[in-house]
Design goal:
With 266 residues, the protein is an all-alpha fold. The protein has one domain. Helices cover 73% and strands 0% of the residues. It contains ten helices and no strands. It has helices at 3-20, 31-48, 51-54, 57-65, 72-89, 95-98, 104-114, 119-167, 176-227, 232-243.
Length: 266
């Protein structure tokens, strides 16, 4: 999913529609409306979350505009390779390789297995890590959802403020049309930013969170299968049940798939 492309399509459709109706995009460049919508929305968001949370805004926004790169096949191949080695040489044979695993979740899980922790304990700890990760992600997701709720309200507030100013100058009817149009630009910005930016960004981050959690559960299933000494073919079948078809060829690489995660920004 490319959030940036979607937002560009939305903006382009609006601009083209306005031009077809005989309007001019330059008419929307109203400094007071822009200041009110963005300034008030940001302020309300800080008040309802925290300044520390709001400081993650640039990273999360940038993350939502880019497609999430993830190599599920490589992760599966790496875990199947570990299963083959563990079944052939024992869990302790993985100790040297585990240190080179880049993914901290997988590395931690395998290290606990090598250290001899009970399967129930390993599963419980890793499930807690997944839940904690999603809780961190949800703070950013919820922040953008809040912004999507605040901006239309401030848009209506800006329009009311503009109409109050219009009514206070009824003595000059020549400028009423332009003044009323300017007043409604605040509503346009409020509703527009909510539905083109904030709510889509929130939904995009939620989608990325679900993808990352799915990968974590896939890794968890494989780690527990490795600990149980399952046949590598069984491990592959369990991975396929979580993430799709089984790899067609035996794993040949021992690298970990590094994918951008939300945890760095949450």
């Amino acid at each position: 999913m490319d959030g940036g492309l979607g937002i560009m399509i939305c903006l382009g459709a609006m601009m083209v529609a306005d031009v077809l109706d005989g309007g001019s995009p330059a008419a929307f460049l109203n400094p007071s409306a822009i200041l009110l919508i963005f300034g008030a929305t940001f302020g309300a968001t800080i008040a309802s979350t925290s300044l520390k949370q709001f400081m993650t805004f640039p990273k999360l926004l940038g993350m939502s505009l880019k497609p999430r790169v993830s190599d599920m096949t490589t992760i599966r191949e790496m875990l199947i390779k570990f299963a083959e080695r563990a079944r052939r040489e024992g869990l302790l044979a993985l100790e040297g390789e585990v240190e080179a695993v880049q993914d901290p979740f997988i590395r931690h899980g395998l290290q606990m297995v090598i250290d001899g922790l009970e399967p129930d304990t390993v599963e419980e700890i890793l499930e807690i890590e997944i839940e904690s990760m999603q809780a961190r992600h949800m703070r950013g997701i919820d922040m953008f959802a809040k912004m999507g709720g605040y901006s239309p309200t401030f848009g209506v507030l800006g329009t009311v403020m503009g109409l109050v100013s219009v009514l206070a100058n009824l003595a000059d009817p020549s400028g009423l049309g332009e003044s009323i149009a300017t007043a409604f630009i605040a509503t346009l910005f409020g509703v527009g930013t909510a539905n083109i930016l904030w709510l889509p960004v929130s939904a995009n981050l939620k989608s990325k969170d679900l993808e990352e959690a799915k990968e974590r559960h896939l890794a968890l299933a494989a780690i527990l299968a490795i600990q149980a000494g399952d046949n590598p073919r069984i491990v592959a079948q369990k991975l396929a049940a979580h993430a799709g078809p089984e790899p067609e060829t035996a794993p040949a690489a021992d690298k970990d798939a590094a994918a951008p995660t939300m945890a760095e920004a949450a």
